[in-house]
Amino acid sequence: MSTHGRAVDESTFVRTYTLTRGRTKPRHLLGLETVLDAGPGRPGPAQAEECEEILALCRERRRSVTELAGRLRRPVTAVKILVSDLLDTDALVVPVTAPYAASDTDSDAGPSPQLLAALSAGLKRKWPDAIAYPQAG
What we know:
The chain is mainly alpha-helical. The protein has five helices and three strands.
C-alpha cells in the first residue's frame, strides 16, 4: 500500500473515531435491517453533521441501517451509534408496523426481534434511569 493510501485509511479511521466520540457500541439493539423513520424530536447541538444527513434521508422515506451506512459511506457500527443518539432524542423512531408483528396465522410465534428492539428503545427513552439489564449477544 502506498503512503498516500495508508494516510487516507488512517484519516478515515480517525474521523470515524471522532464521529462516535470514541464509542464502539450503540446503546440500542439495532439490526442491519432495522427500519428508521424521522421522529418528532431534534438532534442535540453537539451531534455530528452526519446526524443531519441521517435525518434528511429518513424524512424522505423510511430507511434501514444498512442503507444509511451505504449512503453516508460510513461503517455500519458508526452509523448505529449515531442512530442510537438520534433515538435517544426522539429525532428518529423505529416504527412498529405489520412486518414487525407476528402474523395472525402464526399465533404461537413470539414477538420478532425488531418488535422487541423497538419496545426496548421506547422503554429506555421513557425510563432512562431504570435498572439496566445486560444484553445478550
